[in-house]
Amino acid sequence: MGFKCGIVGLPNVGKSTLFNALTRTAAAQAQNYPFCTIEPNVGEVAVPDPRLYQISDVAKSKEIVPTRLTFVDIAGLVRGASKGEGLGNQFLAHIREVDAIAFVLRCFEDSDITHVEGRIDPIADAEIIDTELMLADLESLERRAQALEKRAKGGEKEARETYALMQQVLVVLREGKPARAAQIEDDERRAFRALNLLTSKPVLYVCNVDEASSATGNAFSDKVVAKAEEEGAGVILICAEIEAELAQLDEAEQSEYLETLGLAEPGLNRLIRAGYELLDLVTFFTSGPNESRAWTVRRNTKAPKAAAVIHTDFERGFIRAETIAVDDFLALGGEARAKEAGKMRAEGRDYTVKDGDIILFRFNV
């Protein structure tokens, strides 16, 4: 199961610098686990999770395999992209293929780097991106609603329900708000996702700040943080220049450099984790002497569907999920002692997998 987070932004905001740092970091990590750069603008990175290494130490596993997240560097957007300006059509098509969007916003001044709009205003930049995506959604949805209207009026139940949902979202878009602002009922969410609207995707604001502001932010990033809080969106601070330098260093050199900057970890780690959280994902683990591995599923996934991420036979022949919470596994020193202490649970088909579960799936096919 692959999850993609698109990196978008206006030209010259540091978007590609960030992506290049991500892919260089991932390539360096590839000595320890599989990595691939699928295309020049697509790269898979490990999701940092100290629990996996702690589990491996207890289980004395020969191999460690982290879960991964795909980042897609999407061509720089310009005003008028919804009408085909710049690489508009290509830009919009690539966004449609991702599960979530990270808006990289320029929150630094540098006379040597020209801003495409001739000013530094991250809020205005975000509004340009959102406006272009909303205009594209509006045009797409109006066209589809018009094609569906006749069937809806003819009494087709599914067409009538989809048409009503489209009209609800169109009201929001015409008010100048993204589709994700629509009040969607739980029983409508599947149909809403099926509309595949650009502005329905969850958003993370990435404030690209200067080195001096990397730990505390600045006046530009403060405005973005306030906007994110108002919208209920995610937001992180990151300095693309620092990340580009860190990507060239070994682990010891990275730690020393970060200490001089007053930073606890690379910003890319926070970006990866934030992208993971943005997609509303959770991690479960499998562990044994051969391998400890992290697996990714969406929150609220039932045990058989989680089993299918490992192998479809696990879902087809699912019997039960023998589950230990990671804290119990680590505190008690492994599976055998956790089982003796009554901390291993036998869960059935209706069990919802929780973040940090260590699971052994029993199946028969």
Structure description:
This protein has 365 residues and is an alpha/beta fold. Helices cover 44% and strands 20% of the residues. It has helices at residues 15-29, 50-59, 88-96, 122-153, 157-174, 189-194, 219-231, 240-246, 251-261, 267-278, 303-310, 312-316, 326-332, 335-340; strands at 4-8, 42-46, 63-65, 68-73, 100-107, 203-209, 234-238, 281-287, 291-298, 318-325, 345-347, 357-363. The longest helix is centred in the middle third of the chain and has 32 residues, at 122-153. The strands form three sheets. The chain has a six-stranded mixed β-sheet, sandwiched between helices.
* Order of secondary-structure elements: EHEHEEHEHHHEHEHHHEEHHEHHEE
Outline the low-pLDDT stretches.
27-38
Sheet-strand content, in percent, reads 15-25%
The gyration radius over C-alpha positions equals 23 Å
Number of helices: 14
Intertermini distance? 22 Å
How can the largest sheet be summarized? 6 strands, mixed
Global structural class: alpha/beta
Summed over residues and divided by their number, the pLDDT gives a mean of 86
Please specify the SSE layout and strand pairing.
Blueprint: E1 4-8, H1 15-29, E2 42-46, H2 50-59, E3 63-65, E4 68-73, H3 88-96, E5 100-107, H4 122-153, H5 157-174, H6 189-194, E6 203-209, H7 219-231, E7 234-238, H8 240-246, H9 251-261, H10 267-278, E8 281-287, E9 291-298, H11 303-310, H12 312-316, E10 318-325, H13 326-332, H14 335-340, E11 345-347, E12 357-363
Parallel strand pairs: 1-4, 1-5, 3-9, 5-6, 6-7
Antiparallel strand pairs: 2-4, 8-9, 10-11, 10-12
Helix pairs in contact: 1-8, 4-5
